[in-house]
């Protein structure tokens, strides 16, 4: 059962407005979202849920549930992304944030890094050409101003090159992105990895803001307020890449241990704010301190922000990240202050 997963591409094609459709048949959109991203394994889903989804998509259960390899991971060198919510090549990635949380900087940084890996980067310009986009245009090889222009460029370039394509949620709401992806499915093209952003922050409060996604990067207001960037929430961000036995088990083990620590650390933050750290049991004090160190380590200087931060961008490959996080979890770095781990690359 470990290599079973939902046919997300089929769901996206057949049921564009999955949020409303799920509610109409008595399904919780959050449950559907978690099944799509792999947060809830298909093997643990209720049969009636799967039957309802198949009915919505007007397909058989055999078509809805597919067996085989999960999406290939694209390593970005961004620690928190690669560890907790890896980029799924050829998938759809949703960035869920309110304005000012750094989502556009993370998008620009990701595209900067993907270009170095040979991806052609493309942006479908949002209506009104918002000012916050202007400073980031250098990271895109192609700027399209209409969905038709975007399709023509992808069809032309995608025969030879992998493409990273970004669009605003406004194009999702109109159904244009769904239609575009539907047209591309029948073409013999290299993978098109689609990034969906929400410039207005309207999707934050929705259970299923973009429809089925392979990867979700959920941004965190608390991390943003404390200037810990990238402010991607490691507990709520997820990816289909993390499904089943196809993931490096060392990666999965460290990721789960890190999530457990960060979850408890966040609980303890509230207690510390009220009672003070010294009033916690000694074991909880150790947990709190290690959570602080891990949270600090997951910050990272970006290449696209060097001009503004004065810090040189850092690239940390996944194996280095796993090795470093293990050291933090095991207490090897207990002698270090969190400041020594903030905005660094790797530990060496």
TrEMBL record:
Classification via Gene3D superfamilies: Bovine Mitochondrial F1-atpase, Atp Synthase Beta Chain, Chain D, domain 3, P-loop containing nucleotide triphosphate hydrolases
Primary residence: membrane
Single GO MF descriptor: ATP binding
Keywords, comma-separated and alphabetical: ATP synthesis, ATP-binding, CF(1), Ion transport, Membrane, Nucleotide-binding, Translocase, Transport
Domain of life of the native organism: Bacteria
Domain ATP synthase A/B type C-terminal: 246-307
Cell location: Membrane
Pfam families documented for this protein: ATP-synt_VA_C (PF22919)
Cellular component GO terms held in the UniProt record: proton-transporting ATP synthase complex
Residues in coiled coil: none
Similarity comment: Belongs to the ATPase alpha/beta chains family.
Name of the protein this chain belongs to: F-type H+-transporting ATPase subunit beta
Organism expressing this protein natively: Salirhabdus euzebyi
Organism phylogeny: Bacteria, Bacillati, Bacillota, Bacilli, Bacillales
